[in-house]
Amino acid sequence: MDDFWEFVNHVNDNFQYLPIPRMILRDVQNPLERYTNEELLQRYRFGYNSIQLVLLPLVYPDGDQRQQRGLPVPIIIKLCCALRFFATGSYQRVCGDVHSISQSTTSRIVQEKAKN
């Protein structure tokens, strides 16, 4: 019995318990890398250069500096989601499904972009 408690004490003294890192699984595909320029024009009404070099710096001049919790949506996904909604006039749920985000997040993104 003493050997067992010696072993337990040895384990407790010599091994530190490290927290397991939280794995974040999110499939965020950048539409600018996924689609060709013609496909971007069909889906978002703007080409690669217009989105990357004109609209992104215009809408987010300093990047996205707001304090965000949880899993923030990258600014390129936000911009493309809003462009898709405005270009197609589709439902927010459909536009969010294209970018793997919820309808409520799509609503906040569209509302945020409509104010700008």
Task: Please write out the topology.
Layout: H1 2-14, H2 31-34, H3 37-44, H4 48-59, H5 75-88, H6 92-98, H7 103-115
Please characterize this protein's 3D structure.
This is Nuclease HARBI1. The chain is mainly alpha-helical and 116 residues long. The chain has one domain. The protein has seven helices and no strands. Helix 5 crosses helix 7 and helix 6 crosses helix 7. The mean pLDDT is 82.
Which key terms come to mind for this protein?
elongated, 0% strand, 61% helix, 116 residues
What class, by secondary structure content? Answer: mainly alpha
| Overall shape | elongated
Q: What is the domain tally?
A: 1
Largest sheet data: none
> Quick one: how many beta strands?
0
* Structure annotation, total helices: 7
Overall residue-averaged pLDDT value = 82
Helix content: 55-70%
Strand percent estimate:
under 5%
N-to-C CA distance: 72 Å
Low-confidence region ranges: none
The value of Rg in angstroms is 23 Å
Instruction: Write down the secondary-structure element order.
Output: HHHHHHH
Please sum up the structure shown:
This protein is an all-alpha fold and 116 residues long.
